[in-house]
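note to self: the first set is below, dont mix up w the second
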Amino acid sequence: MEIGIIGLPNSGKSTLFKALTGNDILIDIFPFSTVNPNIGVVEVPDERILKISEYIKPKEIKYATIKFIDLAGLVKGASKGEGLGNKFLSETRRADGLLEVVRCFEDDRVPHIEGRLDPINDIEIIHLEIAISDFEIVQKNFEKIDHSYKSGIKELKNEYEALKFAKENLNKDLWLNEVEYPYEFSEIYKKYNLLTIKPLIIIANVNEEYFIGEESDYVKKFIEYCQKKNYKFIIASLKLELEIKNLNVSEKEVFLKEINLEETILNKIIKESYNILDLITFFTYANDILEAHSIKRGTLAPQAAGKIHTDFEKGFIKAEVFNYQDLLRVQSIHELKEKGLIKIEGKEYEIKDGDIVYFKFNI
């Protein structure tokens, strides 16, 4: 599962990517210094795996991961090919969710692509360009099936209505995830890989001073706008997060305490990125390795086994399952067995968040 990082040039996209991944990439004040996407895999912070390890005593721990893609900056006119528009839009479609970085800091050394700082305008540029791009895809495919449907091919009814609905809303510059539509339209929109259905988090990139009580008018307007539009958002100083990333554990704890944070905003961004993809985590313990695995909510046991190895899915027999919460409560695998809390589940079992699973299979 991949999260695409989008935004105008000089908004802080690449700073976020570097802070998330630790990858040593070019961060420059010149627009389009990111041309080809940077890709990095990040561990998902999960306190549960450390708690589980207290009772299981593994030799090695492996966290679940999520992939981030730092995409080229988008500019006004991108849908018509301005800047790296076509390249940006085609590469963005591969992402399963979007992190949009919006500049909310003033810095004369870092020019703004629009010549002035205006976070709301920046959001609207990005959203308009993406809506136009989706509209063109929808319009093109609507025209293809319009005549066939009206000629009597009733099998096209659902697709016709889905595209018609999308066309009407995109024409109003609305993203499809801002409006309610029938569930059966979802597969149609996924088929065309529309960007405006992808889950979105907006990151307000602020000055360091924000976390010591200096809230600017830009940030206030940003928050009001996101609340009005019902956008999920996070306030972060990405430059500060990059600096915190390079501190040792004790220095990090002291620093976070000074600015009244329980954890880094970076951790919050990773966790929220994971959540918007509707992922859950289950755990396995084999060969002295305790490992967290990410799956889509609603995944059945054989398909979850297939996340570890395709042979596990093909030869699935059953799964021995207990939950993290039960382990935490009784504090012993032996007690779990004694109390009948380790269940034997078959092919129809839906893996739950926090399940600890031992798969039995035959190849």
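second set (the one i keep forgetting abt)
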Amino acid sequence: MENKITLTEVVERMLSFDEGEKASMLGIGPMSKMLIKASMLLAKDKDFPLMFIASRNQVDADELGGGYVCNWDQQRFAQAIKEVAKETGYDGLYYLCRDHGGPWQRDNERQAHLSETEAMALGKKSYLIDLENGFDLLHIDPTKDPYTVGKVIDMDVNINRTVDLIACVEKERIAKNLPEVSYEVGTEETNGGLTSSDNYELFIKKLTAKLDEQSLPHPAFIVGNTGTLTRLTENVGTVDSTACKTLSAVAKKYHVGLKEHNGDYLDDAILLEHPALGVTAMNVAPEFGTVETQAYLKLIEVEKRLHGQGLIKDVSELERALKEEAVESGRWKKWMVDGKDKLSAEEIFKDEKLTLLITEISGHYTFNNDRVKKEIQKLYQNLADNGIDGEAYVIYKIQNSIDHYVECFNLKGLTSKLKNMQ
């Protein structure tokens, strides 16, 4: 896409909107190729820009461990999105975004308690590969420090690491004559605590001063926590409207956008007020993976019913495959509460209700497993033989989930509006 508006320019234009025309952007976790397809079909219809926010666990270089989503590294991820855009006829704005990039952001790096030097080197290597593969936004987040677990990382340490990482990327970008890239900085407090406006502003002041010393670009987004916290299949935090309004005003003063993370499962009343409160963007990821998993489970139910009527002889083993692969993956542990993350697979399989819950919240981690892929195709074929388009149903359910954000965030028509602004 020639002369694509950068995300920095998008934020600048959105900050200039009049009160009655405000919007909030949506960052979509690329949990599967199906989700990307559903997103592009919806964006094509409703004319809004897409931000695909990939964590290092989801998409990363093979030499750094690869990604669990479709086994994508940065190159395959970028290529897959191009292919889906061509397949769907989508020629609107889309942005490849690194979510939570930097040191210790891969689970194995944190579990290995890598030294700061080792972790920073790996974080930089990942960013440079992002850069070479056309990523538009890099989230600089050096706060997953295994040596400060349970503590808030020192602000100056965070800022120094952030500037070091941006300086490294910019040096490489300029040396290779690559296009400008936008940055996102800061991180949410994972305990659900609010970001204070005083600390938020102090962080921005100190960071921008350090960036200016080295003639480095200012970020497009600065993350602030307004109370969101995702657990299981709900948002257990309490979103503070005053915090949204206050933090967005602070961010706007420095010509950057407030970015919220962990926006999954929020009530529409909360989402509807986001544009008015000045929240520039919000990330949603696990919710879309859960919706896709639930769609497969519903199709499995249909398959069973048709089997009961003698219309399908050889049913798929998708239900068993999803449940076993999801539980045995162990990736559900970070979403659990009440000590259930300590349970063994054997204990979980004895509890049918808990097994289903774990499948719903972590089924998306298994979509690329050969066993699961094989059974999905068998399910689709069984349904197709009876006149049911299973893939179309899955896309429909994902689109419904995305669409309520589109409506609440005033996103319809935003692409054309941004392009028409000078």
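remember for set 2: Confidence is low (pLDDT under 50) at residues 190-194.
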